[in-house]
Amino acid sequence: MRRSRLLACVAAASLLLAGCGSTSDDSATSDTSGSGGSGTQYPVEIKHALGTATIKEAPKRVATVNWANHEVPLALGVVPVGMAAANFGDDDGDGLLPWVDDRLKELGGKKPVLFDETDGIDFEAVADTAPDVILASYSGLTKEDYKTLSEIAPVVAYPDQPWATDWREMIELNSTAMGMADEGEKLVADLDAEIKKTVAEAPELSEKSAMFLTHVDTTDLSEVSFYTTHDTRAKFFADLGLKTPASIEKASSATDQFSMTQSAEQVDALDDVDIIVTYGDDKLVKALKADPLLSKMPAVKNDAIVLLPNTPLGTAANPTPLSISYVLEDYVSMMAKAAAGA
């Protein structure tokens, strides 16, 4: 984990925000927006897959729902009034991933209300924070979710498909909604530079292909489920200098969904996969190697498998504004090790 690199990256963005946002012991009712940093003209309209968010004036109270949307305001020096509690990788059970906890401590002020989304969005809790805008550009909002949230405040949903917004689009959309588009653009540029530098130190990844298996059920390996090219985890492979296997490209072209399933009897189609990334442990590897069909996959035969645990590191494959600097080196190192055997 590279906390120092995270702080260096967000510090660069924070320098643009002097005098903006809640960065002291202000209460959550104080101005938590960074509006004005980009000279934004209001009203702002943001079109997305579920409608149009019309933001009539600079938002003072920012709330976020679903995974990681809160990392955009935090990276830009703004503490949300409410945000979703972490539901994966939270190894200490406090609802905060370590890079979020570190950033909140750095910014100071009153901590956000954490929304428990175990059973879906807690609309009452969101309403209680009285937000001026709700950020959900990376989310799985349904039309019903969107309608209910829109009765509370303008909602910035995903631009195309659920859970398909990559980290750059997340920053672009959420920062624009906050009136901080220029600061968001600077954050993207800083993270791009960091990724490029880290990947340059892992030449093993060059020309290798990778696929991401979804959560594998070792009791039933009759099917292979994987993330398509529409999913952010698969999209991140390109940032790391990895190729998308032609087999995954072809399968993904037939759907707009973020995941697919095919019969293990068709596993020969995946012979062009050099590296497999998935969630699990050594028990999973043993199950794959023992399976008469899946054991034939080159990545399985060559032990070119990256296993992501249910810890903060396990979120590395799904890049977010604050997590990239925290876990990037470790994730690239794991990928390079797998690539060396591919």
From TrEMBL:
Its main location: other. It comes from the Bacteria. Pfam families: Peripla_BP_2. It is found in: Cell envelope. Residues 1-24 form the signal peptide. GO terms for cellular component: outer membrane-bounded periplasmic space. GO terms for biological process: iron coordination entity transport. Residues 21-41 are annotated as: Disordered. Residues 21-33 have a biased composition (Low complexity). Keywords: Signal, Transport. Belongs to the bacterial solute-binding protein 8 family. This is ABC transporter substrate-binding protein.
